[in-house]
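Q: What structure does this chain adopt?
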Amino acid sequence: MKDARILGVRVDCLDMGSTLERIERFVDEGGPHLVATVNPEFVMRAQKDREFARVIASAELCLPDGVGVVWAARRQGCDVRQPVAGVDLVQPLAAMCARRGFRLFLLGAAPGVAGALAAKLRSGNPTLEVASHPGAPDPSQDAETLKLIHEHGTQVLLVAYGAPAQELWIDRLRNRLGVAVAVGVGGAFDYLTGRVPRAPAWMRRAGLEWLHRLGRQPWRIRRMAVLPVYAIKVLRNDT
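A:
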């Protein structure tokens, strides 16, 4: 499987279909497997945060999440056309779990959000075995969270604690989770339940979803300030 190295961070050249096939294979193999959705903020954080860089490097899959990562990967000959974002992965992944009888667990977001999404996914996939819990990355809550995951017999775990907390949490408990696959999905639960509106389809197709998010959540300006620096570093690194 071909991959790209964006400022030292691996990104696998996969589309949505190939990603689902790989995750299905991971579940058949048994775990644990970490799947990271790599965006430019991940790449930039990995430059200065050695622990986060180590965790991302340990992931079995590093998906191209965001047009900035797709752009950089294509510059290296990576044949990837569209981002494979966590928010876009959840629903097809749930459908695959329902088809194969895999048990899915939604962890994170504000109280009630994961439960609402679980109900929505169950409505679209009546055979889906899905459970949910808001949880928190605080070690004091680990025992309760692990108990619920184990009792459910979870095979695929989606963690919506936000980066880097979700990836660090998965890594810390990796050998105690008992799951085959764990995926950090950031704010996906909020978007999929309508708590936070997504950009219109035309903006997503044009690679402008970041602009829509910034308009609705101005506090993101500090996080997005790394994007010009990211682009300059990528261009310099390629020369």
